[in-house]
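Hi X.,

You mentioned you wanted examples for the new student's onboarding notes, showing what a folding record looks like when two proteins sit in one file. Here is a clean example. The first protein comes first, with its sequence line followed by its C-alpha cells.
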Amino acid sequence: MKKSLAKKIRRVIPYTPGEQPKKDNIIKLNTNENPYPPAPGVVDAIAGLEASPAKLRLYPNPDATPLKSALARHFGMGLVKDNFFTGVGSDDVLAMAFLTFFNSDNPVLFPDITYSFYEVWADLFDIKVKRKPLDENFRIDHKHYLKKKKLGGIVIANPNAPTGLAEPVEFIKEVALAHPECVVIVDEAYVDFGGESCVALVNELPNLLVVQTFSKSRSLAGLRIGYAIGNTELIKAMEDVRYSYNSYTMNLPAQAIGAAVLDDNRYFAETVEKIVETREDAKRRLAELGFTFPDSKTNFIFAKHKSKDAEYIFEELKKKNIYVRHFNGERVRDYLRITIGTPDQMEALYSALGLILR
C-alpha cells in the first residue's frame, strides 16, 4: 500500500471479543452467555415470522415501535415509548451514546479496569478520556467521581466487568447530581444477576442514561438486542444521530422476538435464579480449589488462584475443551473470568481444575 494512501486510513486497536471455538463437545464459559435457552415465547414469535416470510421483503419499523412499546409496558414506572432507544446489542447502543453525548474538549471518566470497548470507542471517535484506578479490592473509588471537575461524560458499568462488583444506586445518583453538565451512562448489562438498577432514576435525573441488553439474562446473545433508557430529550438526541448513520438498525425478527420475550417474566425469573444459585455454589467450590475473587453480582466470577498461573490454567482447560477468559492487562493477568454455566458444566469445570491444580 502506498504511504500516501495509508496515511488517509483510520487506524485503531480493535476490541477483542471472546474466543468462539468451532469445535463440538466443548464447555464454553468464556463469553458470559446464558447457558439456558430463551423464553418459550421466542419459538412462537419465530413461527409467526416463518408463517409470513413475505414480511421480510419490507423494511422494519425504523423506530422499533413494537419493541419500545413492549419495553415501556414491561418497566412501567411512568416510562413511555419515547424513553427508549434500541440497537443491535448494547454495544451498538453504547457506541451511539458515545457518539451523541461525548462531544466536548473535556475528558470522559471511567475506571481503569472495566469493559474494554469503552476505550476502543473513545479512540475511534477521538474522545478524550480520564481513567481512574480501581482500588486494591477492585472497587470504584467514589471520590474520583464526585469531585466537582468539568467532565465530558462518565461511564460506569454496574455491575462492573470483568470484576463482577456492583455499586449502590445511591452512588450513581450522587455522581449524576455532582455532574449536571454531562451525561452519565450506566451500563447495566449484568444487573439482573444481583445488581441494583438505576432505571427508576431516569425521569428524575435528566443527565442519566441506563443501558441494558437481552444478551445475558434474556438468553438472546445471538439476536443482538440492546436498549437505552433515559429522558425523552436524551433519547431524541440519540435517535437523531442514529438516523444520520443507519435508519434501520433493528431488524424485523429482533423487534418481534424481543417484544415476545418480555411477556414471559416467570421463565426469566426462574432462569436468573438458577444462574444465581449456581454462581453462589461456584464461589464455595472455587474457594475450596484455592481461588480468591471479588463478590460477583453477575453471571461470571473473576478468579485468581493462590499458586497456579492464570495463563497456565487457561491453556490446560482449553486442552480439556473447557473455555474460560484470560486477559493480559497489567492488573488482571493473574485472573480468569469464568462464566456461570449449567450445574453439569460447572461440575466438569471443577473436575478439570482438580486435575490441573493437583
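Then the second protein repeats the pattern, sequence line and then C-alpha cells:
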Amino acid sequence: MKVVILCAGYATRLYPKTLHTPKALLEYQGKRILDYLIEDLKHSFIDEIILVSNHKFYSLFLEYSKNKGIKVIDDGSTCNENRIGAGNDLILGIQEIDDDCLVMACDNLLDFSLSCFIDYFYIDKVSSIMCYKEKDEEKLKRTGQAVLCENRVMDFKEKPSISISNFAVPPFYIFNKEDIKVIKGLKGSYDSLGSIIEEVVNKIHLKAYKMVGKRLDLGN
C-alpha cells in the first residue's frame, strides 16, 4: 500500500504562523504535526509515503523527508491565490501509483491508529472512507457528509448547505488500485479532497469505516 499526504495548502487562517512554515511542520504538543502521521504509519505495511507540497514550501518538505524514504512532489503553486486545490493535488500525487493507496490531509490527527482503518480495508479491499456521527449542525456543514446503507456509501456531498446525513467524513480515504485508475482519469477541477469523493461515489463501490475514536482538526 502507498500513502499520499496532502500538504500543499497555505493555511491562511493560521497566519502569521504559517507565513514561513507549512502547517504540517508546525509543532503540536512537542512534535510536528506530520511526525504523528508518519510515526503511526510505521505500524502498518506501507511501501511508500508521498507528500504533495506547494512550490513555496517544497524545499522545507525535502529537508524534512531527508533520510526518511519519503517522496515529495511539487504542485507548482506559489501562493494561496494560485493553489490548485487538494483534489487536484491528489490526482497529481497518484499519477505513478498502481497500488492500493491511503490518502489523507496533513492537518487531522486521530486518537486511534490508522492501522484499524487499513485492516478494515483489507477485509475485502473495497475502497473506504472514514466517518463518524456529528450532532452539531454547524460542524456538519464544514465537512463532507455520507449517506449510508449499513456500511455502503450511497451518496456523498462535500460541505452541503443543507445536510444530507449526520455522518461526517474526515479526510482519510483508502482506494484500491482499480479505483485509483478511475481517479487518475478524472478531467475536472477539484478544489477539495471531498470533491473527489463526490465525483466518484456513483462510479465506484465505497464502504464506510465508522471511527473507533476521535479526530482533531488542526486546520480550524
